[in-house]
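Case study 2.
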Amino acid sequence: MIDDGPPLLTIGQLARRTGLTVRTIRYWSDEGVLHPVTRSDGGYRLYDAESVARLELIRTLRELGLGLTDVRKVLAGDADVAAVAAAHVAALDAQIRALRLNRAVLSTVAKRNSTAEEMALMNKLARLSAAERKHIIDDFMEQTFGGIDAADPEIRNRLVVMVPGLPDDPTAEQVDAWVELAELMQDPDFRAHMRRMVEFNAADRGPDVKPGSSLWFMSRLVQLAGEARERGVAPESDEAGDVLRGLLGDADLPAALERLEAAANEDVARFRDLVSRVRGVETLPRHEAEFAWVLAALRFRTAS
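Prediction:
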């Protein structure tokens, strides 16, 4: 017999009260997270109003991703809800990062119309550890600058600071850019081109040339060429020759043309764009019009 007292609920009534299925409630009872108050004469489980509140808490914890082991500890008072929640926040953050990587890789695969082999490579690059990503950067720097002590140290320093690893919590665009940047840094042709540029720089520097002169020269090129274009100076004009002399002095023009053509390479410009995207900053201007003007002026004079 059941004593008189607050009305008790069968498992079916409890299901209707909470909107959960009888099967779910029975399973949670079997797992020891929801205990019946008593049983009927027929052996059926019976629950009270507190069971409704306990069931709502169980459902909330389960919807937030807690496993039954953690739910059982919270209900028994063996675990602090805040501590359990913090642990699950960390787990969810890891899952979110993994999902972002998956989305970025799949978006890149779709955009590039990649093959299965290319997709596997992109997935591998995106999931590299921080140490593995650093190894790619360090190897690229060594292949570019190794053994060339006369190169402008400011260029190396600028590149060391500029080339980023993948952030801990990257956006899909940053992952996409990093994958392409990692591929570019490992491309033998691009490495050879960057090495050639550094060799040019080292060959042009005398013992008394101050660090940073190469960067100053590029800024000067953009300034003078930009001003000439604004004045409408044609690359083949005599005035353009004066601009070149102001920029290059008495330098050998064919050699200057070769070096500036290397600097204006599309892959070099793409490299800078990708670095900016991975860093999450605005891409630097390419100054294509200014370089094109100087190259046109040099080609006119070296062809004649």
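DSSP finds 15 helices and three strands in the chain.
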